[in-house]
Amino acid sequence: MGLKGELPGDIGQLTELQILDLSYNTGLTGSLSPGIGSLTKLTNLALVGCGFSGQIPSTIGNLQRLYSLSLNSNSFGGSIPASIGNLKNLYWLDLSANDLSGSIPVSNGTTPGLDLLTNAKHFHFGDNQLSGEILSGLFHSEMTLYHLLFENNKFTGAIPSTLGLVVSLEIVRLDRNHLTEQVPSNINRLTNLTDLSLSNNRLTGPIPDLTGLNLLNSVDLSNNSFDQSSVPSWFSSLQSLMTLKMQDTKLVGELPAAFFSFPQLQNVDLSNNLINGTLDISSSPSKQLELVDLRSNLITNFTQQNDYTFDLILVDNTICYETGATYKFCSLPLNTSATFSTAYNNCQPPSCGSDFVPSQNCQCAYPLKGIFIFKVPSFSTLDNVTLYNTFRESLIAAYQTAKLPVDSVMVSNPSKNLEDYLVIDVAIFPSGEPSFNRTGIIGVSFMLSNQTYNPPDGFNTYTFIPINYNGFSLEVPVTGGTSHNTSNMGIILGSAIGGCVLVGLLVVAGLYAYRQKKRARRATQQSQPFAQWDATSGSGGVPQLKGARSFTFEELRKCTNNFSEINAVGRGGYGMVYKASLPNGQLIAIKRAEQGSTQGGLEFKTEIELLSRVHHKNVVGLIGFCFDQGEQMLVYEYIVNGTLKDSLSGRSGIRMDWKRRLKVALGAAKGLQYLHDLADPPIIHRDVKTNNILLDQRLVAKVADFGLSKPMTDANRTHITTQVKGTMGYLDPEYYMTQQLTEKSDVYSFGVVMLELITARNPIEKGKYIVREVKQAMDKTKELYDLHELLDPTMGLTSQLKGLERFVDLSLSCVEETGDKRPAMSDVVKELESITALVGLKIGSETSSSTSASYQGTGQDFSHPYSNDSLFAFSGGFLPPKLQPK
Q1: Which of 256, 438, 545, 681 has its CA 20 to 30 A from that of 613?
Q2: pLDDT score of 472
Q3: Of residues 687, 696, 705, 732, which has the active-site annotation?
Q4: Tens digits of per-residue pLDDT, 42-56?
Q5: Does 457 qualify as catalytic in the annotation?
């Protein structure tokens, strides 16, 4: 927006603020006011690419709800505040590209430190002036980091051996520091690593043993002081390797021929070593191989099967000193840079003038321009057209899914900067108008500054730096030249044409007036969709919404083929459920209330009010609603893999092993924690069960069906006195007896879900209650608490059920008789994260082994997740359990 000046001290008075994003305003300068610490409801703070300086205020540690903190690309100086260690909910921490100095704070019993951030997945501290030793206390086994980016600082001393305890790590960059001593031998415990860069330090001792790191895409150990050693055996075992850089590392011996056959191998740089003997690339080298740089070694011979197509450099090797040697590999290849630019869509780009440029669709527009900086790309090539098109298409898809006004994206000029980051120029074009308005720019930029956009595989973490947008008031230019030499014939033709145009305009005006009336009616429906709401029908007052889209009956009738039976995918107590597709291709599920259903009206009002306010990846997304022509319909995102109930029963065809069940439990727990702690107002679900937990295409759990939910307002913060509703078997006995509903009622129901996860049995089955059965059967002195007879055998072998005892303990703590003895959902999430880390599962990753595309049944059309037909839905009354209907 081109904002300038300093952030005022009274920013702290905006106490209801939840998101503060001032990114990309380079004119915002000065220090960050300590008043920022008064914004205690903040979940996202993004000040990316501004001009702030001074110290980061310690009051930032007061922001207990903070989930994402992005202060990168400013001029902040001084030390990292230790108080950041108080932000227990922090997921994303990016302080890179500043002037921060000093060491990284670690807790000592009296002051906090960053080692306390056990929920954090991203530590991005690169490109600063940080110094001193990286203390061993910074890392421990309870941490769940994915990315550790400490590159280009001034760290000294040894790499702490405790780094090997953070088994969730996927990317480690410690390059371009002053680190010394040996690389810890337990580095090969980080079996999830995809990128390891330790180059340009002063590391000594043997070359680290990377055996077992089978997911590694990129390794860079160049320019250190390792001991002279033979070529490591792990050269022939890292099948995922794409890039290997080990210049000047004192390697001795022959390279194994099998090394060049790795299917993804692209770039090998082993220059300035002591590699000798015969170079053998005869056994089917990788088709992706682009560069093998072995200059300044001692190679005497070269064996190849066919003429190679990659660049091979053997300059300053023994083979090139032979008399009369004229091999092409004995001279440096031409230095050609990538010149990729997005192609136009089968059209001739027009001349648009100085302010505008042609889009991919050859329309003159004023795009948002900037650069993407990918800090850890897993590929080394710069001229792979498919990669850049995949990136471009994924960015467009992300904007369209978020319903932002983006028409197309063009990318160009890929390059590597001095930090070995991948830099790509990007132009984002507006849709429907020649330029973005201010609202459009905010939405387009927010997705990038808050890391909402997830780039495709291989691109990894990024920073986006745009150019200030100055096109808000510009209009489309008229292209082509004009002549001042008009003739009489031109006047005659102009008059004739003008007369025809006038007649045409009169006809158009009539049509326009008619259409405007229709548009006015539609606009009224959109702006006042509940004008016909009957508050006396038992459904309460008019729904109060935040952002849900209003559909007309005609729109939904058309996309369901007149609500045909072919599109029907289930039936619940609310009514029929239909699968459909919107004009943009998005799959949706439509819950259509049965005519005259008061219960349907109440559920309609409750779900639409609550879900229009909540947005979380573990809560099913409400797209919109229809209240038109006497119809009440709810429109959700379509969840392809049905309910958790379907998967546990085997109906979906998905094999639920132990790790997948853990991942589902954690996802559902995070959804409930969000409802309890971060939704405004907090929400009690009141009907938590396996039929109301949905699984998407990657088996990410989503909490669904809010027809019975209750908001916790200021007037009922401790409990809600209400008629008992829920599902028998999952129902909190304390709520059942007292009619007082609290968040701990959801915790009880979730405990039952956890027991159902490990047994695959209904909560009440053949007169037996699962909670009682587990308590009576368990023996804590024996393996797996002696629950073998109750456990679902499809989870896997007994030896594979690591952490199951802790899972059982947690579930039983959730189903304590009284709510005060049960944990909060936030505590449940922390324990589940600890268990998942124990079994080596990547918490929150959508690409881990337990969430890969190998799932059986993904994408099939199962009975729809919004059906609610497996258990009796209890709605009032106090029948004893033995008299309840089955």
Answers
A1: 438
A2: 74
A3: 687
A4: 999 999 999 999 999
A5: no
